[in-house]
Amino acid sequence: MPTNFHQKSLSLLSEQLSARGxxxxxxxxxxxxxxxxxxxxxxxxxxxxxxxxxxGGEPRNLEEKLEDIGLLARITKRTDAVSLHIPWDIPxxxxxxxxxxxDLHIRFDAMNSNTFQDYGQPLTYKMGSLSNADSxxxxxxxxxxxxxxxxGKELGSKGLTVWLADGSNFPGQAxxxxxxxxxxxxxxxxxxxxxxxxxxxxxxxxxEPNFYHTVIPDWGTSALICxxxxxxxxxxxxxxxxxxxxxxxxxxxxxxxxxxxxxxxFNDSKYxxxxxxxxxxxxxQLFLIFCELTNGAEEKAQTWESISWMIDASHTTKDPLxxxxxxxxxxxxxxxxxxLVDRNKLNQCQLEGDVxxxxxxxxxxxxTDVRPLVREARMQSGGELDPxxxxxxxxxxxxxxxxxxxxTQASGL
Length: 413
Ligand code: AFD
Ligand code: MN
Ligand code: MN
Description:
Elements: H1 3-19, H2 24-33, E1 38-39, H3 62-76, E2 81-83, H4 94-103, E3 107-108, E4 111-112, H5 135-155, E5 159-162, E6 167-168, H6 176-192, E7 199-202, E8 213-214, H7 219-229, E9 233-238, H8 248-257, E10 261-266, H9 283-298, E11 308-311, H10 320-339, H11 343-352, H12 355-366, H13 371-380, H14 387-393, H15 396-404
Parallel strand pairs: 1-2, 2-3, 4-5, 5-7, 7-9, 9-10, 10-11
Antiparallel strand pairs: 6-8
Residues 238, 240-241, 273, 312 line the site of one manganese (II) ion (MN).
């Protein structure tokens, strides 16, 4: 895209926005500050249980994962952090990894523990981890989480994300109440090992890999457990972890109202936990979620800074770096649009019961093309005008294949 086209579209938009009483520069500053972490497992081709098709040039180790995120950081200016998964990404040399991340201006976001698969540990997680009927397995899973905290402490992370696959596939397989109790007790032990300036982010998911029941199926169960842990334990909303048509923006509003929203795992889906690119299927839903977020922060339900932002997607078809560029863009756009909502007018409509008016207010914001704002925020921060175009023009994937090989496979699922 030519720079003068960008300048023209920005000044046109800026004129429209000031007619609506909005300050373009203020918006650009806000968008520029918004950073979203990238998970270390989204840099290779994602697999399903049917298979995996390699992309070529996938990062072979943690250093190369950091290099890929460093590239994203440099050209998009929308990410400044990586979220590591243990044991997929155990740093062999912590000082080296810290130095590499610092050189690339990358922070370490929340650490992810993994008790949903076997990787050579003494006891199997086949029948669950923190909820397992066998106390030795629970102990092993607790210790794994404590180890993840130790690694994270050395790296400068400030959070532990726990996602449990625990549950059952058939009626009668698990004692539902006991499984919940054991999970809560195990998490209490983990929470006791959490440093004072850390938070615990607890995910939920209604199904998969267990299909009859999951121990933490929904935000309510996650919140109930968090309440029994302490105030640094909060609920993590992964957009894909809901049954179809769930009103996720309402969940966000409710959690913020209770100061219990830990953060997000962004992705999109048509059916369930599809892990498709954020904003590719339901951009209006994403916008409505951001409306609750910006409004909740503005009205001081919960501070913006207390919320963590991360992408959690990995699928089988796209080049993962191109996909992440698109996702970062979509999230920034949804955020930008939420900043355009005329709150006074919306409040007035709500007061007067003007349903049509309220819808118009939201649509006015949603249908505004905010791309010039997002581009300008990126450029003012030193990023590329069009990161996707840059990526293709510079033949980054080809260079990665040349450097790393065609058949490399990044760790992950
Ligand atoms: C899963 C969960 C969780 C987990 C990740 C691993 O949402 O965040 O750590 O993906 O791939 O879907
Ligand atoms: Mn997730
Ligand atoms: Mn998921």
